[in-house]
Every structure is written in C-alpha cells, then in structure tokens.
Amino acid sequence: MQKEHHEQCRDYYESVFHDHLTSSGSKEKAFDACLHRFLNQSPKGKNLTAKARAYGLATTGLWTDSKTVSDSALASLALSKLLHNDDTFPTQLADQLASQNPDTLRWAIRYSGLFERTQAPIWLHLRSKYTSQDWITFFDVCDRLLEKLRPFDQIIEHAERALQKLSLLELLSYLSVIACSNMLEESPDKLQQQWNVYDRIIQRKLKFCSHKDFQLNDKTIGKSIKRHLSSLLLPSNSGWCESAHQNIEDLACLIAATSERIDYEDSIDWFRFDPLCAYQMVTGESVIYNMNDAGTREWEKTGHKYDLLLIYWVNRAMEEFASTDLVKQTIGLPENHEGNRLAYIKAIKSKLQLKEIYGLDDHITLNDSKPVPLFQLLLASELNSQFFEESFIQPLQELAHTTQCTTEALSILAFDGFTQGENRLPITWSTTSEKAKRIKGWTVCDEYPNGSIAIADAIIKFWSNDLKSQTSKTKITSEMKAPRISELPYNKIGQYIFQFPWVAGKQNNLTAAVNSLRRLGMHRNELQEETRRVEQRLGELFKQRGFNVVVGYHPPINGKDNPGEIDLICHLDGKLLLLEVKSGYIRRSTKEVWLHRTNTLRKAAWQLNRKREALITAIKHDEELKGQLNYTTSQPYSTLHCWIVDTSIELDGQSIDGFPVVSREVLEVVLRDEKHLLNPLNKIDSDENEILFPNGFSASHFIDLVESNTLWKDL
Q1: What does the pLDDT average to over 290-319?
Q2: What is the pLDDT of residue 476?
Q3: What one-character DSSP code corresponds to residue 62?
Q4: How far is the first Cα of the chain from the last one, in angstroms, to the nearest whole number?
C-alpha cells in the first residue's frame, strides 16, 4: 500500500465530513456520512484497496471528538471493518478509543471477531495495556468463549487424522450411512443443522484431497464401495469389516464434535452480533446471557411468516394446476401419478416465486449453454426429490420399524435394490451422460415433446457441485461462499455424478434454486436483467391497483452528489411512494441476517435518504415526471413514503435508519388482496375470506396496511 493511496482516501473522508458539516451543521451527521461512504467502499479508483481505505479513515482526525464517536450510529460498525486490517490499525487510535469510547471499541471488537484472532497485534496491545475492571471482564469473557472450542478442536483433529487415509468417495460413503440414521431421527430443523455439520466435514476434507481423489472409473468405484460400504451393509467374513466399523466410529466421533463446535460457534455469533446479548463474569453463571427475549421472539415470528408464505404459494400453485389439462391426466406411470402430480405442483409453486419475486423469465441460460425452460429445470429437481422419497426414504422408514438398527434397514434396502437391478445404497452414482439419459423424460414439454438430452445435460450442470473446484490447490473458497449439499444436490467427482438420497429426498428445492442463482451465482450475466424485472413486475402490480408508476428514474445530479437511479416511484390519490428494491438469497443464520442488515439494507437506507431529497427536488422542477405520475402537488413532503422492498423475509416490518423494510412477498399478497391464501387449503372458505380492502382499494389504506404490518395480525 503506497502512502499516497491512503492519503488520498484520508483526504476524501475529511472533505466529505466538512462538506456535510457545512450543509447540515451536525458533526454526528457529517461523521456518519463519511462512515457510510467508507462502508460503501468509497472512494473507488485504481489501486484504492480496502486496506488503503481502512488506513485512510483510521488516520483522519475525525475520531478525536469522543462525543461525536459515541453518538454515531455507525462508529462501531465502521471500526469493525478497520479491525479486519488489524496489522495496520493505528495503536494511537486504539488507545484513544479504549480510553474515551470503550463501549464503541468493544462492540467493534465483537462485530469484527478480533478476539478470535488471538495473536493480532492490536489485540495483544489492548490486552497488555488496559487493566480496568471493565476491560478485564471483557477480555476474560472473550477468553472463556474461545476456551470452550478447544476440546472440540482436539477431538476433531484426532478424528480427522484417523480418517485421513480415506479417499473423498470413501468418506462420503461412510457419511451417508450415518446421515441416514440422523434423517430418521431428526425433525426438519434438526436435519438442516446436521447438513451444516456434513458441509463442514466435506469442506475440510476437500482442503486435503489430491488429484487421485478425482480420478475415478467404474473399477475404482466398485472396489471402494465393496471394501467400505458393502463391508458395513452386506457384511461377510472379509477382514475389511473390522476396519469399516472403526472408520464409522471415528466418523461418528468427528460428526458429534463438529456438531458441538458449530453449536458453540452460534453462541459466539450471538455474542458478536446480537445487541441484546450481554456478558458477565459471575461464578456459576453463563458468561453471556439474553437481556430479554425480544430477539428470539422476532426470529420465531420470521419463521412463522415463512411458513405462512409457503402456504400462500402452494395455494396459488394449486389454483394454477387446477386450471390446466394436467388435472385430468395421469402423469407418468399410474403407480407414480400421485407423486408426480405433487412434484408438478411444487414446481409450479417455485416457478411462480422465482418469476414474481426474483425476476426470472420463462427460460434461463445455464452455464453458457442454450436457454432452458425454467419450469423444466424446477420440475426435474422436484421429480428427482420425489424419486428418492418413494424409492429410498419411504422404504427405509418402513424397514426401520421392523429392524434393530438403521444399518440393518439399509442392508435390506440395498439387497432388494440389487435384486431389481437398482442402486438403493445411501449414495448413488452415474456418469453425466448416463444421468442425462435417465432424466431426459423429465424434460418433456410443448417445446420438447420427446424430451431433450441437451436440456437434461444443462439441468445436470446447473445442479452440479464440482467438488474438485473447491480443493485448496485450485480454488480457495470461504465457507460462507461454498456450495452446500442442500443447494447443489449433484456432486461431481471426476466424470461421475454422486447423489445422496437422504439430501435429494428432503431438500427444499425452492431454496436450492434461489441460492444457486443468487448466492452462488451472484456474478451471473443475467442477474442485472432479473433485478430489472423484479422492479418492473412490482410496478405492474401497482399499476393494476390504479397507481401511476415510473420505473428506473434518474434524478438530475446536484453538484458532486449523484443519488443514483430510483427503482420505483408510484402515485395514487396524492400519495407518493419511493421504493428501493433489493433482491438477494435465502438466509439461514443470524450472522447472515446481520450482514444483510448492516451491508445491503444499511446501504439501501442511505440511498433512500439521498433519493428522497432528489425526488422532492425533481417533483418541483421535472414536469415530465409529474405528468407520468399524474402528480399535481408541488409539496410532496407530507405525502411521500419511502420503503426498502426486500425479497428476504427476515427483516420485514422492521426499519433501517427510519425507513420501513417491507417484504416483496408481503406486497404481493396485499396488492392482490389474497390474505385468505395464507391459510391451508382446507381452511379457506370463500364465504368468510378476509378482505383487506372491504371498502375498495385506496392508496392511504394500502399504505396503512403495509406500514402497520396488518397482514400478519391474527395469523
């Protein structure tokens, strides 16, 4: 990092501060304006790295006013980003904050996880210098949290050494046996937690894989399965049995320790990210505790909303399915009809959500191949799940009631499969070409009446996780960005596709699709166009309710400040809406939600604040805009409502910097007046359906419904 680079950043932040101080007269607002820009990775330019920006901000004189730092809403968050570059964090700034703003600094340490990097220079400096009781308590709590991890790490290290001799395929074979036992015992929520454990074990194994792990052929696969999996499920007098049982014991130990560690990591994340998590050093008491249960209740409420919205989309899918000729036809073989019909309805549900909420089109381009019908992609996934549900999971559940253990049930199921010429092992495999031939029938549609091998091949590529690409020698992948076994169910090793029936038969295929497209595919070429469709389709919903809508308005640039494009402006009956639309993936942890709130939604609120002022100015002077909106008032202050519209549900009903966060799905239900579809189909009574607009639709009533969260009342 050259000196002029961080000085350029420092000068930029100080200039922003003085400009905002002049215009607002508030040091706090001016300081937060600087921090927003830093968090938004400004300034941008050649060679202006994250480290240059961090050191530039850290060396400004803006931190010397302790009151401004204390009053700032963003100081701890910005400092946490500075502490990620702990080797360049100025000790002078650390000393100043530790003395004058200790709470701000301690929250920054929690957010950044600095205490987990025990040899970081700035952490060692703070520990050696600050000995007040508050600081000692904080240091002791951090130590105690990390101490709890060490026993798990020792067990994990010992178990991994014992299993080191296993190839990737062999480890996955043993893992599949244990996973089947867990599948029979755990609830859906617990099952997802187990999958998180398996993901961790697989990712750690991949770091040490060699090229030999991916050089498979029919002979090596057969030899491996016979020596390891068959020794467990179809035991003989072979000397391999004892070794196989020892491997399964070692792996069970690894799974248990990894599960315990991940559970405790969740506690550390609670300490890091939850403002309601307090800490103490009291004999006989937990070092961290909840100040109240508001956060827990909010998380449970989010889960309930998710369940209700699932019912909503299933009901819409049922209505669409009932309107097609398929409702009168036998789908596939008669014995598979019920399962296939369910798969069709689920695929329709996912198609509706992906199109309406996430902006996908009827066709999607996958892996630079030809466009694939979206519905066929989703249907293939649902039929795949239905196949494993009927041919593996249900028979295994039935056998589990009549056998002494899961291994015995798996043995009977595998033997029955062999007699029928089918693989009913807890791990299946085929070459890519063989797999494409098997699922060709799943691609039959009006466009391809006989199915299409090319489309089948593209579908396989979309759902495939090339495990070799995640090895340390070819690509370093963080756990946050690594594919999960429940997102890409086809595991590619060499030229073979491996599947886990215990995942494929249980996974949420909508979540898998969304996260494959939005989390793993965040750099796809089509993403920008999909985001535009999200805005356009939401605009169409508003138009159907009588709103005048402008999508993608560019307000004039005022001086150096470019507010950027306004996603949606809607007007009806003197009520003006300014919407900032965000489209992301489906999150699974409090950490991911915290990152979403402090990054994406914080920036959205910052953008809304600037765009609000730009729109107010534009309304006064842009006659074309006023004409498009049919807006005649020149004073929009009292009638303007600004919302963050988010495809995620986790922060629905909350506010960021005073701006309400509204789920995109909530707007779907309210604008279509379909609250009744949030109820299970057998509880929907057309004579008693709750109407959200009994006196007719009005903009003011609509806004009140959304901002008061009325949709969720009594549900």
Answers
A1: 93
A2: 46
A3: G
A4: 56
